[in-house]
Amino acid sequence: MGAMGGVGASGLLIEDGNDRVVLDYGTKVREVPPKFPLPVERPKAVLLSHAHLDHSGGIPLLVKKYSTPIYALDVTKELTELLLDDSIKVSREEGIELPFNEFDVRQTMKNFVLVKYRVPFKIGNFRITYFDAGHIPGSAMIFVENDKTNVLYTGDFNDINTRLLEKCEEDLPRVKNLIIESTYSDREHPDRKKEERELVEMIEDTISNNSPAIVAVFAVGRAQEILLILSKYGISYPLFMDGMAKKATTIINKYRKYLREPNDLDNALRFVTYVEGRMRRKLVKESACIITTSGMLNGGPVVKYLRKLCKNERASLILTGWQIEGTPGKILLETGRFIYENIDLEVKMRIKRFDFSAHAGRKSLFKFIKKINPERVFCIHGDHTEEFAEELKREGFDAVAPIANNRVFELQKN
Ligand SMILES: [Zn+2]
Ligand SMILES: [Zn+2]
């Protein structure tokens, strides 16, 4: 129902007789008008893989219409609430009215049913198990089975350890049908350690130049990963955190049982000051590192910092994630100008983008599929799913990339 042949507004329906469950129901972040998966007949449940809006952003629509229960981990519930509320706020600021409001988000929260990794539960005749996906705290691969067949939906996953999280679960059941994300099917990640070293060097360099280093992050996952990297290399400079990253970090630290080293984040936070309103004006004149949202420069305090610092050649702007086509971050990398709403500025700061992705890279995707060895593979959630499926076919897999929504497939049966 969504995220076919692209990323954003993920949505799948698994159906057998009266049993119907929806896997994720997201939104296309910042699309005008907002985009959601196809409407669906009353499902018995939403199985939510993780909190990111491209997977969760449309759930209030289902709750409004059917009061559908949502199955997810505890941390996913809190992070989803944070992101849904923010999506309403940001949309409003941009003059867009979403088809749900704060009240609907509160109702949505009441409908969450908390699940645990590796503890199966039943919905109708479906038996469902969540496995750790290693992508963000609470992220899950979802395994759905009945007496006829089974399917594993990877959600977004990562098969390498990061500073924040352990890699995804490797001890998986025998999978007949695999639905796999393909975000990085066409490219490899650079060496992570090298990225880490260069990030730290750039920050320390900027600070020794008596200037601020602005680190733009996604609130959930990336902000905490960056903080842990800095902490590993030793924080010898004033360190601040701003924007929604603060609340996300507080939530994630509360659920430290999911972290690779449960106490590391809490220890690192002792070096961090959360920025409150007025501090910003002073901060831009200091030699300090400021971790702030949003990761693609479309909103959040990073906009305020950029306005103040764009002419400062000694200050730096560090991007820590993929920049989607058309976002201010991508445009800045291509043109050297920061263009957002009615702002258009030439940016003289030092700018660099790093790759701290939380998605499996190209080689990992192939390795994962070969290890699972499913009878059928569906490639979704990527810009090159068709090429990916073709490559898999050449390797002998029954692979398909549904690139249009509203298509129905039979699963391979037992
Ligand atoms: Zn995600
Ligand atoms: Zn995603």
Which keywords apply here?
alpha/beta
How many strands, which pairing sense, and closed or not: the largest β-sheet? Answer: 7 strands, mixed
Q: If you compute it from the alpha carbons, what radius of gyration comes out, rounded to the nearest whole angstrom?
A: 21 Å
Q: What is the distance, rounded to the nearest whole angstrom, between the alpha carbons of the first and last residues?
A: 25 Å
In which order are the strands of the major sheet placed?
A: 6-7-8-9-10-19-20
Percent helix, as a range, is: 25-40%
Shape: globular
- Low-confidence spans: none
Question: Can you count the beta strands?
Answer: 20
Number of helices: 13
The portion of residues forming beta strands comes to 15-25%
Present as ligands are: zinc ion
Mean pLDDT across all residues, rounded? 96
Textual characterization of the structure:
- It is a single chain.
- The chain is of the alpha/beta class and 414 residues long.
- 31% of the residues lie in helices and 21% in strands.
- The protein contains 13 helices and 20 strands.
- It has a seven-stranded mixed beta sheet, covered by helices on one side. Strands 13-12-14-11-15-18 form a six-stranded parallel beta sheet, with helices on both faces. A five-stranded mixed beta sheet has the order 1-2-3-4-5.
- Strand 8 and strand 9 form a beta hairpin.
- The radius of gyration is 21 Å and the shape is globular.
- The relative contact order is 0.14.
- One zinc ion (ZN) binds at residues 50, 52, 135, 156.
